[in-house]
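User: Second chain of the day. Same drill as before.
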Amino acid sequence: MTSSVNSMKKLTWSSPYAVLLCLAVVAIADLVIWRVQMPYLVEAVFDEPAHAATGLLVLFAICVAPSRPVILAVLAGSVLIDLDHVPHVFGITILEHGVPRPYTHALITLIAIGLVAGLVRDRRLRMLVLIVGAAVAVHLIRDMAEPGGPGVSLLWPLSDHPYAMPYVPYGLALVALAAVGIARRRTAPTPATDSAV
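Assistant: Same format as last time:
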């Protein structure tokens, strides 16, 4: 009984439907964010699942049956960086003077994560830290592509200049990632965790 339950959990992550679900979450969230004016916290209810789904789409294009630690690392990197918005919710702008998003929404955060990974001796834990960093990078790309969004000051503290990108290339990239993820799942043998961590 336990083995069949575990098998079902793996099949859920390795199913083409998991990929399609992630793509649908992003599409619906972005359509609502683009078309509906809403309060900051309400927008976050749509934006955070879309960030998580974007990170998972990248992962699903790479791994057919990712391990639970890898999935958790991707989810952590995809959404936890937005905790830096919490002070803004309470009217505190200490993390965002002169920039459209908090200071930690910048390449300096990726450098810090890379340095932490370099200090970790355990190979598996180091890989998970690097996966978190990759997910943070994907998060920043999504923020730059936000329709009508203010962009991201990637080079802070060297520059406050916000960088943005058109939504269409981002959207097409997600469709391509989904197509790869689905194709890999249709041609893959019986799912087995294909991550080293």
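The chain has one domain: 2-187.

User: Great, on to the next one.
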